[in-house]
Design a protein that fits this description.
The complex is a heterodimer of chains A (about 160) and B (about 220). With about 160 residues, chain A is of the alpha+beta class. Chain A is about 40% helix and about 20% strand. By secondary structure, chain B is α+β, with helices and mostly antiparallel strands. In chain B, α2 packs antiparallel against α6 and α3 (about 55-75) runs antiparallel to α7. In chain B, about 35% of the residues are buried. The chains are: A alpha+beta (about 160), B alpha+beta (about 220).
Chain lengths: ~160, ~220
């Protein structure tokens, strides 16, 4: 990581730390648009979940914003699991953890969720959980995606996924 | 000066309302209470939108259901909700309560409240304390409503996410720029149709209060 990337990660770390201090766990809900300005410039095309998600992943990889992103949809269609490798913001997440704050904002996930809403008209989405593994350099993100309001309340046991 | 502790202690968040209308003079009193809340440097950044229209309240209720339900469905799927409500021993009752929560119905009561008051703050007049000023105003509103025999509920969840806050602003015609107005919550008001168990468990002062310095729970002798 060069000094410029380190600098940007330190900026993001400090902003997220301050936001968490102000808002506690609500900070994650407030940051859902972070990163979406970029993906909205990328002309993502598709008419289904896989098409939109895969198009976003390709753009993110091409821009150097992840080395690889694997995804899986389960949980009666509302659980989107993303495994992100080689994210340039791993340092930001590590700094947050060292500061005693559970990482709460994944920019890649924000972008993909944004495009499900923008391109497929999804009712809403929610970034539910984020596990950061600095040793492997991977993050596992679980997000709830609701194609329609009727999907709210479609519960299942995500630990079995 | 009368002690208002009884009003404070007996206040409850009311989510079920009778359909009876709330007279204007009662709403005026609730708004007047808000207007006299403490505000940094007397900026008074608060603005209030009083909503009685059923169609608008339905839209707010739908948004509330979506916001709370989207989060609580995920929390249930991860097992968090089950932990939170493990204290309900009857499995049928627990399942019913959980369903009420993760379906989002728990937050959809704006449609049944005769009045909803959106509390927003201007970000364009230099105030440095907008969320805190607005919170003080909301507490005043809830206490005044209670003292008038009304029920009220401070509702933040449905405007908690950035997208939902924008949708809420659009419903009420509030400018949506993030540098214009902050929507912090709404307060639903009506005649109570429920009598909630009270008092709800509160942590004892001994657990909450330190004396002179953080961590010191020994109350010093005074005088």
């Amino acid at each position: 990581m060069d000094d410029r990337d380190r600098y940007y990660n330190h900026l993001l770390f400090r902003l997220e730390q301050l936001l968490y201090h102000e808002l506690s766990d609500c900070a994650s809900w407030k940051t859902e648009l972070v990163g979406t300005d970029f993906i909205q410039t990328q002309d993502i095309q598709g008419s289904s979940e896989p098409e939109i998600i895969e198009a976003c992943i390709e753009k993110l990889k091409a821009a150097g914003l992840a080395k690889d992103i694997a995804y899986k949809i389960g949980g009666k269609g509302i659980l989107l699991t993303l495994t992100v490798a080689g994210c340039p913001h791993m340092l930001k997440e590590q700094l947050l953890r060292e500061a005693g704050i559970k990482p709460y904002s994944c920019l890649a996930a924000n972008m993909i969720l944004d495009q499900l809403i923008e391109k497929l008209g999804y009712a809403t989405t929610y970034l539910a959980d984020m596990k950061v593994d600095a040793e492997t350099g991977q993050c596992v993100i679980r997000a709830a995606i609701y194609a329609t309001p009727e999907k709210i309340g479609e519960v299942s046991d995500w630990s079995k996924e | 000066m009368p002690d208002i502790l009884d009003v404070i202690v007996s206040r409850k968040s009311i989510r079920r309302y009778k359909p009876d209308p709330v007279p204007d003079e009662f709403i005026d009193k609730v708004l007047e209470a808000a207007r006299w809340a403490p505000t940094g440097e007397n900026y008074q950044p608060w603005r209030f939108i009083v909503v009685r229209d059923q169609a608008t309240r339905n839209r707010i209720a739908d948004l509330a259901r979506l916001g709370s339900g989207s989060r609580m469905t995920a929390w249930y799927c991860m097992g968090h909700m089950q932990e939170r409500f493990a204290g309900i021993e009857d499995p049928e009752k627990r399942a019913k309560v959980l369903r009420f929560m993760y379906s989002g119905e728990v937050s959809a009561f704006a449609k049944d409240a005769p009045v909803v008051i959106a509390v927003i703050g201007t970000l364009m007049e230099g105030s440095v304390d907008v969320p805190y000023d607005l919170s003080a105003a909301i507490e005043n509103m809830c206490l005044e409503a209670h003292s008038l025999g009304l029920g009220a509920c401070w509702v933040h969840g449905p405007v908690a996410s950035t997208r939902d806050a924008k949708k809420f602003k659009e419903i009420l015609g509030i400018p949506t720029g993030l540098g214009q107005y902050k929507v912090i919550a709404y307060v639903s008001i009506g005649w109570p149709a429920e009598s909630r168990k009270h008092p709800r468990p509160k942590k004892p002062l001994e657990e909450l209060v330190f004396w002179e310095k953080f961590g010191n729970k020994v109350r010093p002798r005074h005088g």
